[in-house]
């Protein structure tokens, strides 16, 4: 019964902004989310905030995961916070991953990032967080 | 004592020991791990004995240091003579900022330089690029023109200090810049020592800082190797890299195989152009990762040296012994650093560094404890330098050559890694070589699969990361270490300097140089380096030179498979 009533999978855009090529984490997270039953669109590297926003809108994604290991996470993530707001997409669950110092993580949350997953995160925790937040938003 | 029977320590005897003696121990205390394996997944027996090295011929396979097949080291005296080079990579902000860091490191006992460039430079864009200007000087130093390169090495005696330039897709441009800086300072090319990283193939498989498609990119590497042999014969234009492949998630065997396959690919491309590999091979150097599994890493370095020597002698038919000999730089594993309890990284790095020394490295970078967050602070990088000095001067590890040679386990693992890597190289050959392994996505998939398996092992706690999935602090905090802060004024100053150079240079000379380069770029077998050097002398920018090559060769579009 529950399978017949099952909801469509959660749509997630995983994105790499700017020139940072470190994609090990992004690919591992993308694979874990897919294995957990989510529909994952990986943008690949070298994306601009504009191309990432476009992917989120086109795919009507519920979740955006931004991965940055190049020290430019503040600029790109803050731009995207603003652009999501301007395009009426502040309901998108916005997660940032990578080498993010704690102080920066706090500032990102002030700008509208929902959660930051740094080095050593478990994909299991990321999946649980997404499922809980998306369910809460739908309720 | 006389009645003690002399026994033969053969396989049968060892088997009896396992069944009778070892089994008794395990009855009392069961094995800690169900299927013990190295970090790379190679199964490990309980103990190694002469039976495990029966197929290894000491004369043929192990030999002596400084002699073929170099398992015990590329030099006879190793660190009893010259210690390895303490070479910490550094780069941030403008050239002056990094120059200051170089001098700080040299003052604290560093013996060689290594430069990290910022992302716009690595990807062949100028600092005034509309979008990418926000990445100026963030994870490396911004270099737009040879004027920046002069400032980078100001006051540093290039004839005495070897310098590594961590640059790949635009390596030809930066190599020409280094040579032009020396030339304009009156230093002969023959006195320059150092390396450009310049291993573009591992960019497609691991680090993702590529610009052009693989085929012309490999030809550009050949250009630099030929140019190096002519104008700066003591400089290593190619530094074949396993480091990034490993940090992207590969196993030790994959690291060795893809790196050696890349080295072969460049030399075979050169041979296609009629260049004798013996002319270039003596100046090919290597760059390895040293990860957490101490003995696997020692064995890996010994295996890589032996495999390269055999490949060069038997496959490429090189006759100059200098072509057989693998000289290498090592760096401790960046991906092994934890953000949690970061001081623990000092211990991790020390063990990894010791593996590099027991493995016989020629040059070593030790990561700083804060690099899971940012580029290192001065205080953190000083500890990293001191770690190497403690190994060199206090541990005794440097006082004997290849002290682990002859260990049943290390010799057995050395052979196993060599055999498996040779097997993977044979598969790469079957699919048409390293370029084909890149274009088909085969190499990337293998690395991504290994990365995935490691993550699964971490999440199931089959692999313990101290301070993260075991022995973690309740608050999971980062311990309040003081991180390096980027200077927010860098971008503006760099943009001003670039504008200044563009205003003062002779535009006509720049345009002529770029046009000349464009005219020959499409002929893959014509060496482009003299034309790139002329463009550099004319103060053309990295972006302008790369744009010419982009316009002729196009850019590489990577797969987004995961």
Notes on the structure:
The complex is a heterodimer of chains A (139) and B (562). Chain A has a single domain (11-138), classed as Cobalamin-binding domain (Rossmann fold, 3-Layer(aba) Sandwich). Chain A has 139 residues and is of the alpha/beta class. In chain A, α3 links the parallel β3 (63-68) and β4. Chain A contains 5 helices and 5 strands. Chain A starts with 10 loop residues before the first strand and ends with a helix. In chain A, α2 (49-59) crosses α3 (73-86). Chain B has a single domain (58-459), classed as TIM Barrel (Alpha-Beta Barrel). In chain B, 52% of the residues are buried. Chain B is of the alpha/beta class. Chain B contains 22 helices and 9 strands. In chain B, strands 5-4-3-2-1-9-8-7-6 form a 9-stranded parallel β-sheet. The mean pLDDT of chain B is 96. Chains A and B meet through α1 of A and α4 and α18 of B.
Q: How is this fold's topology laid out?
A:
The complex is a heterodimer of chains A (139) and B (562).
Chain A: E1 11-15, H1 24-35, E2 39-42, H2 49-59, E3 63-68, H3 73-86, E4 93-98, H4 102-111, E5 115-117, H5 123-138
Parallel strand pairs in A: 1-2, 1-3, 3-4, 4-5
Chain B: H1 11-28, H2 58-62, E1 85-90, H3 95-107, E2 112-116, H4 119-122, H5 146-152, E3 163-166, H6 171-184, E4 194-196, H7 201-207, H8 214-231, E5 235-236, E6 238-241, H9 243-247, H10 252-272, H11 277-280, E7 284-290, H12 294-315, H13 321-324, E8 327-332, H14 344-358, E9 363-365, H15 378-393, H16 408-430, H17 434-439, H18 442-459, H19 490-504, H20 507-521, H21 529-537, H22 542-553
Parallel strand pairs in B: 1-2, 1-9, 2-3, 3-4, 4-5, 6-7, 7-8, 8-9
Helix pairs in contact in B: 3-5, 6-8, 6-21, 8-10, 10-12, 10-16, 12-14, 12-16, 14-15, 20-21, 20-22
